[in-house]
Amino acid sequence: MGYFVKPGRPLGAAVAVAAAFMLSSPCASALGLMEAYQAALKNDPTYRSAYFASEAGKENRILGRSNLLPAISGSYSGTQSRNTITVGDASGPRDYFSRSAVVQLRQPLLNLDGYARYKQGAAQSNYAAAQFESQQQEVISRLVNAYFDVLYKGELLALAKVERDVYVEQRKVNDRLFEKGEGTRTDMLESQARLDSSEAAVLETQDALNTSRTTLAAIIGGDLGELDRLSPNFETRPADTLSFEAWKNIALERNPDIKTLTYGVEIARQEVNKSRAGHTPRVDFVASYSKSTADSIQTYNQDTLSRNIGIQINIPIYSGGAVNAQTRQAVANQEKAKSDLQGQADKVLTELRKDYDAMLSGVARIAALKKAVASSELLVKATEQSVKGGVRINLDVLNATQQLYTNKRDLAQARYNYLLNTLRMRSAAGTLAEADVREIAPYFQPAQ
Q1: Average pLDDT for residues 300-316, to the nearest whole number?
Q2: FRET partner for 233 with CA separation of 20 to 30 A, picked from 112, 210, 277, 373?
Q3: How far apart are CA 101 and CA 96, in angstroms?
Q4: One domain for residues 245 and 293
Q5: Do 401 and 190 meet the contact criterion of CB atoms below 8 Å apart?
Q6: Taking the complete model, does pTM exceed 0.85, yes or no?
Q7: Does some domain include residue 40?
Q8: What pLDDT is attached to residue 3?
Q9: Given 293, 315, 337, which residue is the final one in a domain?
Q10: 191 touches 170 (CB < 8 A)
Q11: How many domains does the chain have?
């Protein structure tokens, strides 16, 4: 609920209430940033989907390796046979039960397709691991963005309510002055217009806050309750000492999205090798052990035991042009993968440059906005005194008040952006982890 200023209270007192309002809201148990992060790891459906995709991707390494390892198979058959044998004019039945059991081992000796599948399986597992690493960083970014967005929208709502209450008080002051013959109808209309606009702003900001809370609740998988608030003793840290070139080198080496597409190029390269292997022979070592009983009428009442060992060579000759077409297709896909990798690297470095510059300017921007807020508060008080002295008019007070809340809004946004830019930098560099969440968590504390 908004803080309503009692009639007769000066506007400067109402302005001072804004900061206290945002920092003093009773709550039973506030949801801290680390608690929200831990809840997201357990409940966020996007993260859970990425986790199980990673688990599935790990098996590609074993699947690829299986193409180079021996394959052992066994078979058994049992058949009841009834035959009629005719010799001259005599004939008679012969019933028997035939059995056959075979165990075979096949070990590839020369299998270029299998070797390409082995290399591709390893690349696919690495690809899945890099994708999951990207999702681990992405859930941090989404969680922190959503958490900050709720807090920022809450601050906007508090500011909007206090600003509205200031205009309520100003309208009352104008009404009293008009009744005494000291004010004008224009002053009353100006105050009412600002009040109507501020009422609409409160409703709009409340809707935006509800949407932000719903978004965060979906990520953590539960009700939010109260969140920790940005500390009133917010202080920026010293600027990062690493140069942009250092961050660039780290990003090219560790960014998970770049690593993912690097493995994608390797997967495409092995697909080319698989296609070309369609022209090469395959050599297998084959060994078998079999035992049969009466496997035909000619071996009625006989047992056979066979042990075989040898080499099997399969030579592809012609497949209707499919091998050449598949090879050309694989080569084209490999070039596409290379282009995708270059495009991703360019995108990451562009974002890195933007976040690096924003990080450097963030400290100075916060300092400047703190001064702007302090100056605006003094301006509101001075304008109020000037109105009493007949030097300024009501509209000047309204404009000064609006500028004050604009500066407060910008300061709040700058503080959140400062923290977000720190995380974005590390995300682009591929180093964002839980430790970074712990590092910024002390910036927040339960509301008193």
Answers
A1: 89
A2: 210
A3: 17
A4: no
A5: no
A6: no
A7: yes
A8: 31
A9: 315
A10: yes
A11: 2
Q: Indicate whether 427 and 367 sit together in one domain.
A: yes
Query: Are residues 404 and 291 part of one domain?
Result: no
pLDDT at 25 over 60: no
CB-neighbour burial class of residue 422 (10 A; exposed 0-12, middle 13-18, buried 19+): buried
- Distance from first CA to last CA of the chain, Å, rounded? 17
- Cα–Cα separations (whole angstroms), residue 391 to 101, 185, 383, 395, 402: 111, 18, 9, 12, 20
Contacts of 410 (CB under 8 A, 6+ apart): 369, 372
Q: Which residues of 213-224 are buried (b: 16+ CB within 10 A; e: fewer)?
A: beebbebbeeeb
Amino acid at position 293, single letter: T
Enter the DSSP assignment of 238: P
Q: How confident is the model at residue 298 (pLDDT cuts 50, 70, 90)?
A: low
Same domain, 333 and 260: yes
Range of the domain at 211: 11-68+111-280+316-445
- Which residue type occupies 333? N
Least trusted range by pLDDT, from 21-25, 64-68, 92-96, 156-160: 21-25
What is the Cβ-side half-sphere exposure of residue 259, based on CA atoms within 13 angstroms? 21
Domain co-membership, 285 together with 373: no
Cα separation, 404 vs 413, in Å, equals: 14
> Does residue 2 lie within any of the structural domains?
no
Collect all residues with Cβ–Cβ distance below 8 Å to 36 and sequence separation of at least 6: 143, 147, 216, 219, 220, 227
Buried b (16+ CB within 10 A) or exposed e, 64-89: beebeeeeeeeeeeeeeeeeeeeeee
CA-to-CA distance for 3 and 29, rounded, in angstroms? 23
Asked whether residue 378 falls in the same domain as residue 435, the answer is yes
Write out pLDDT tens, residues 341-372: 999 999 999 999 998 888 888 888 998 999 99
Q: pLDDT tens, 117-142?
A: 999 999 999 999 999 999 999 999 99
Handedness of CA 11, 13, 14, 15 (dihedral sign): positive
Poorest-confidence range of 58-72, 73-87, 97-111, 203-217? Answer: 73-87
* Rg from Cα positions in the chain: 38
